């Protein structure tokens, strides 16, 4: 069993209930991962994913080992048949096979280029590990998805909703850098699996991949989208249609207390204060960002638990 995408979740409500059970007794399966090793390979920076996934592994009795691949390992070649006389020193065929001998599960973080859409959508790094490793693979944020975050967000909404069918808005917000679509994509996929009223708000030119958003309503007027919202999930992403470009930095899209009304505020973190969201929101009881980050452990633990059970 791999955990590559939100589409690997067969029944999101069952997964949420299982994550809640883990949260109520995090050490309940501490024997399950005994003598098993989790390898965490980071091609990009991380705070939450890096620590919460290790914490999840430790709660299951696993031994996590971590490598910053980009900084510390040999440059990995992903091309088939490449004459390796450039900067790459080791092919993914050998690298994945070797790491598979040290680890029972391999977790990978590899962000998109945001310049080569076809390459990013091919999920070159993640799929190469899935192809050449002989052990299960977990996606810790790839070019197009962040399914550990999406599962976390579904769990958090389930915990904090006061209604059987809350209204959830995914709102784009401005940013100074071109950011990936992965968090937005996985959040969309998670909400499409949940029983929520779900809409997206983003400026013209910022629609996410239509193959992912499908028939989810998209508003280009943020105020209209926010009417009756119970949860506002905020994230910046660069343009998908003008791939990787920053076309809009309009500060009027920043999230404020006034816009939120009674809605709860969510964000995957890290977040730039007073660019994406004003201080007053993050410093208020409306903000769930710390609770969300806590849930990263239990989402990861559920995924690792399912894989370990599958390996038995
Ligand atoms: N939300 C999230 O994935 O955080 P990190 O990038 O710090 O891991």
Automatic annotation (TrEMBL):
Q: Where does carbamoyl phosphate bind?
A: 46-49, 74, 109, 146-149, 268-269, 296
Q: Does the keyword Transferase apply?
A: yes
- UniProt pathway: Amino-acid biosynthesis; L-arginine biosynthesis
- Which top EC class applies here? transferase
Q: Which domain of life is it from?
A: Bacteria
The catalytic activity, as recorded, is: N(2)-succinyl-L-ornithine + carbamoyl phosphate = N(2)-succinyl-L-citrulline + phosphate + H(+)
Q: What Enzyme Commission number(s) does the record list for this chain?
A: 2.1.3.11
* Sequence ranges assigned to domain Aspartate/ornithine carbamoyltransferase Asp/Orn-binding in this UniProt record: 183-304
Q: What Gene Ontology molecular-function terms does this entry list?
A: amino acid binding; ornithine carbamoyltransferase activity
Q: Name the Gene Ontology biological process terms.
A: citrulline biosynthetic process; L-arginine biosynthetic process via ornithine
Kindly state which keywords UniProt assigns to this record, in alphabetical order.
Amino-acid biosynthesis, Arginine biosynthesis, Transferase
Pfam families assigned to the protein according to its UniProt record, in alphabetical order = OTCace, OTCace_N
Signal peptide start-end:
none
Q: Which positions are annotated as binding N(2)-succinyl-L-ornithine?
A: 141, 175, 235, 272
What InterPro entries does this protein map onto?
ArgF'-like, Asp/Orn_carbamoyltranf_P-bd, Asp/Orn_carbamoylTrfase, Asp/Orn_carbamoylTrfase_sf, Asp_carbamoyltransf_Asp/Orn-bd
Q: Which residues form the Aspartate/ornithine carbamoyltransferase carbamoyl-P binding domain?
A: 4-159
Q: Which family does it belong to?
A: Belongs to the aspartate/ornithine carbamoyltransferase superfamily. SOTCase family.
Q: Quaternary structure per UniProt? A: Homotrimer.
**Main role?**
Catalyzes the transfer of the carbamoyl group from carbamoyl phosphate to the delta-amino group of N(2)-succinyl-L-ornithine to produce N(2)-succinyl-L-citrulline. Is essential for arginine biosynthesis.
Q: Which PANTHER family match?
A: ORNITHINE CARBAMOYLTRANSFERASE, MITOCHONDRIAL, ORNITHINE TRANSCARBAMYLASE, MITOCHONDRIAL
Q: What is this protein called?
A: N-succinylornithine carbamoyltransferase
The species is Allotamlana fucoidanivorans
């Amino acid at each position: 069993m791999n955990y590559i995408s939100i589409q690997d979740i067969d029944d999101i409500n069952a997964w949420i209930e299982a994550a809640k059970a883990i949260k109520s007794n995090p050490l309940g399966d501490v024997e399950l991962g005994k003598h098993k090793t989790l390898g965490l390979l980071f091609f990009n920076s991380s705070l939450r994913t890096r620590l919460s996934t290790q914490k999840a592994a430790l709660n299951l009795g696993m031994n996590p080992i971590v490598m910053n691949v980009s900084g510390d390992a040999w440059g990995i070649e992903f091309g088939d048949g490449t004459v390796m006389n450039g900067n790459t020193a080791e092919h993914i065929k050998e690298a994945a096979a070797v790491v598979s001998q040290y680890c029972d599960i391999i977790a990978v973080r590899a962000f998109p280029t945001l310049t080569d859409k076809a390459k990013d959508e091919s999920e070159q790094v993640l799929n190469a590990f899935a192809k050449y490793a002989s052990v299960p693979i977990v996606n810790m944020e790839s070019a197009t998805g962040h399914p550990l975050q999406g599962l976390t967000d579904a769990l958090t909404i389930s915990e904090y909703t006061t209604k059987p069918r809350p209204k959830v808005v995914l709102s784009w917000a401005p940013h100074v850098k071109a950011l990936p679509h992965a968090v937005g994509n996985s959040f969309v996929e998670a909400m499409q699996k949940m029983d929520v009223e779900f809409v997206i708000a983003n400026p013209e030119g910022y629609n996410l991949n239509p193959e992912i958003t499908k028939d989810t309503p998209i508003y280009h007027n943020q105020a209209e989208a926010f009417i009756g919202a119970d949860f506002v999930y905020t994230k910046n992403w660069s343009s998908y249609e003008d791939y990787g470009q920053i076309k809009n930095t309009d500060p009027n899209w920043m999230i404020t207390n006034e816009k939120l009304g009674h809605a709860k505020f969510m964000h995957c973190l890290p977040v730039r204060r007073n660019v994406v969201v004003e201080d007053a929101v993050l410093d208020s009881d409306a903000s769930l960002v710390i609770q969300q980050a806590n849930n990263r452990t239990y989402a990861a633990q559920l995924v690792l638990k399912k894989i370990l059970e599958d390996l038995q």
